[in-house]
Amino acid sequence: MFVKFEELKSVIKKALLNAGLSEEQAEICSEVHAQSSRDGVESHGLNRVPRFIDYVNKGWVDLNSEMELVNARGFMEHYDGGLGIGIVNAKKASKRAVELAKEHGLGLVTLSNTTHWMRGGTYAWDTVEDGFIGINWTNTESSMPVWGSKKPTIGNNPICIAVPYKDRPFVLDMAISQYSYGKLEVTRLAGKELPYPGGFDKDGNLTSVPGDIEESLRILPIGYWKGSGFAIALDLMASILSKGRTAADMDREGKGSCTGCSQVFIAIDPYVFSTKEETEKIAEGLINQVKNAERIDPNKEITYPGEGVLARRKKALTEGVHVDDSVWEEVKKL
Q1: What would the pLDDT profile of 207-225 be if each residue is shown by its tens digit?
Q2: Helix, strand, coil tally for the chain in percent (to 5)
Q3: Considering only Cβ atoms within 10 Å of each terminal Cβ, which end of the chain, N or C, has fewer?
Q4: Topology classification of domain 68-177+221-268
Q5: Number of helices (H) and strands (E), helices first, in the chain?
Q6: Which residue among the candidates 44, 78, 116, 322 is catalytic per the annotation?
Q7: What is the pLDDT of residue 236?
Q8: Beta bridge partners of 154
Q9: Do the record's keywords include Oxidoreductase (predicted)?
């Protein structure tokens, strides 16, 4: 079914207020959840609200906590998230990175002891819409087997990279698994299979059936062993720079998805060494080559990361935001 964006946001906000969030917290979080569904990332939009409220009820998210500055050195700052609301913490951290970049040309903020930020692309879009290159990532509890193993031992550690380009920025938002567990859930709820194999079933066979991957917990890393190595690198950098938890630490504590995680937010001024016109000309050369590449399917346009989001956003604001019927009814009752 499809609902208007404002109605979606209103229903989510009501559920969050009922869960004990303040007016300001509920406004920020409902906006982000609704925007995620609007942009086609349903798994971290409406669908994630019941789990977030469950974590609040379990005491895994501290509604009274605010992130605090721990240390600062030049363009780098480190904050403790105090197990506060992940969206609120990440919004503040990414904004602070931009402020540092305005002063130094580059801003780097690390955040330890925080909670799930929902859609990581939210903060990359915020940064690029402020005119800066954005890079942000988070570690997670173990959700993917390290290459050559059978059981989850590393996180799928989503990373986002955004680069300004006219009114159509490049925004890459991806997990280090071929598909996130959220994407598996959305595909399963829709009664569909994945377009490409996304993991192994319990018998060790590659499969496109999302439920079989969810059962085995053997999600496939991007690039096979390369993605596995990249996931480890992202975890090490996030946890070391923030003096925070690794996947191994979160596994031992066992408090669900991303509770106590470590995050990094980087903002870079793209015009430090060149003008806006020069940077756009540089980007245009590559983007034109990408857009004009010979198509496998003549009827299917080639797009770069970010274009699809803008198209889905435009469509959702005129035709309504797609929501899963059962999830919609569940959230309305919260």
Answers
A1: 999 999 999 999 999 999 9
A2: 45, 20, 35
A3: N
A4: Ribosomal Protein S8; Chain: A, domain 1 (3.30.1370)
A5: 12, 14
A6: 44
A7: 98
A8: 144
A9: yes
181 pLDDT more than 90? no
Whole-angstrom distance, CA of residue 201 vs CA of residue 220: 11
Between CA 219 and CA 176 the distance in angstroms is 10
Planar angle of CA 24, 182, 334, nearest 5 degrees: 45
Active site residue 322: no
The CATH code for residues 2-58+313-332 is: 1.10.1530.10
* Interatomic CA distance for residues 279 and 165, integer angstroms: 8
pLDDT tens for 25-36 read 999 999 999 999
Q: What is the mean pLDDT of residues 48-63?
A: 98
pLDDT band at residue 158 using 50, 70 and 90 as cut-offs: very high
Amino acid 231: pLDDT: 98
Q: What are phi and psi of 237, to 5 degrees?
A: -65, -45
Phi/psi at 20 (5° precision): 110, 0
Mean pLDDT of the chain: 97
Tokens, residue 220: 């496939």
Residue 281 corresponds to which tokens in the numbers above?
């000309």
Rounded to an integer, what distance in angstroms lies between the CA atom of residue 292 and that of residue 278? 21
